Amino acid sequence: MPDFYDRNAASADQTPTQTWVSAMVVFATTFLVLIYMCGQIKERSKLVTITNFHMLADERISRVKNRFQSEARRIEGAKRFIENSDITTQAEFKGFITPFLYPGGAYLFVRDLNEHSYKTAGLTSEGPSDSGFDYRAYSKAKRGETPRQGSNSRLMILYSASQQPDMRSGVSIDTVDPTLPHFFEKAKNSSQPVVSAPIKLSNGKFGIFFIIAVGCKNAVCPKDAVFVAAMVPIAELMEAGLPASSTGQMAINLYFVGPDDKSISIYTNDVQETQQADFTQARSLLPDDPRYGMTLSASDSFVLAQGEDFKISYFIALSIIVSGLLAMMFFVLANQNRKTAYLVLKRTHEMDLMARTDSLTGAYNRRHFIEEMRHHTESIHPIFIKHGLIALDIDKFKSINDSFGHNKGDEVLSALVRVASENLRMKDVFCRNGGEEFFIICPDTDAAGCFILAEKLRQRVESHAFPIGRQVTASFGITEFSYGETITSITERADRALYRAKVAGRNRIEIEESA
């Protein structure tokens, strides 16, 4: 009797393709989910990094803005000091200004003097006095005239309380700079500090001047107006008080927008900016003329410190590892579960087969016969579907037991089952009813078809060499199922046909028509 589980028992130790495919599906699904989650985490992390960048940029811009404002407040304080004093001496001015100085800064006390007052002061044009207090005439030559102080007239630093040699010797500004006349004229017409455009100093660097007129009323200044000015080197403006740890975190560009709306870069800190987007910010420092602005970009070191550059590769590697582990776990568990399910199913089938088969011959037993009969009687159709039943009995089986013993009789029964199983169709159901009597259920087969099958079996049994050394024959009784008929009536009719075959001489086939 063919057994599906016996035929496929070898596959229990093999890995089915379905398990591999399922494991790959788990890997791909887990990987995609993790990549999506990592993408969300990266986006949020990038938002945090961008926020940190903007906070750092705002702090840097605020620092520069505060420097602009503090310089304006300082010269405004110096102006009030001068206006509230009857006579301002160099010592008084020095004592007042010194606490306000930044390292590297310089204050100017500028007076627009004519040639007479210049000589009266007892000063020469050779350079600053030993006291460090120096007047220089700032004069704009009329068209066609020669400048009073020679062909290279320039404005020198008038006062430097920082006592730095380079400041004591003065920093010069060429009067040919077209912004200077406008700068002083604007200061005369304003009661607030005025900020100059970036002016290139004689040392090749840029500086920014803050100036305010003294003694002016209602924006009207006397002809010999006095000015208080402060000069801040741009490098000092951008770098003073900056922690060393943050100097390389941003690429900074300070620019000035001129009257022609063209931007001029006046300071860069030589830090390489990152190529990633969203890490650049441009802000205006002074909304009015002159227009200063800053462009700040995060550096590669800033991005690396935030971890943005390696997070995506880290996330991908982590996703592959986690997905691989889950896929391996799924594969192991699925394979183990498949083997367990196979063993359970096999054992269940074996137990069910034991309950349904005859332990001696291996044929189905009466319990299975009754279940199959119930199924076929319910599926029968009065016209289109016909089933047949064959009753089979070994002739003179009692004499075989008496002559050769019960063991030989059992061997004859087993041999008969093997002969029948080899010659039956796959859909036929061969059952032992008890003793030497057997039933064969023939689905979708009428009496004529059952007769052909019974005749084939009769000949095979008659010609088979049984272990008792003599010929063994069998008798057959055939009948058809009738619609609505009970199992008992069908089996009784087959038994009656079998009985007639026995009475008629054995080793023959008899048919009893259905009711």
**SSE run:** HHHEHEHEHEEEEHEEEEHHHEHHEEHEHE
CATH topology heading of the largest domain: Alpha-Beta Plaits
The value of Rg in angstroms is 57 Å
Specify the CATH homologous superfamily of the largest domain: Reverse transcriptase/Diguanylate cyclase domain
Which key features would you list for this structure?
515 residues; alpha+beta; Alpha-Beta Plaits; five-stranded mixed sheet; 46% helix
Summarize the structure in words:
It is a single chain. With 515 residues, this protein is α+β, with helices and mostly antiparallel strands. The protein has three domains: 4-53 and 306-354, no CATH class; 88-238, no CATH class; 357-511, Reverse transcriptase/Diguanylate cyclase domain (Alpha-Beta Plaits, 2-Layer Sandwich). It has 14 helices and 16 strands. It has helices spanning 4-7, 17-83, 90-97, 115-120, 165-168, 179-188, 234-239, 300-306, 308-356, 366-379, 397-404, 406-423, 447-463, 487-503, and strands spanning 106-111, 154-155, 173-174, 194-195, 199-200, 206-214, 226-233, 250-257, 263-268, 280-284, 291-298, 388-394, 429-434, 437-442, 474-480, 509-511. The radius of gyration is 57 Å and the shape is rod-shaped. The two termini are 33 Å apart. The model is unreliable at 1-13 and 111-176 (pLDDT under 50).
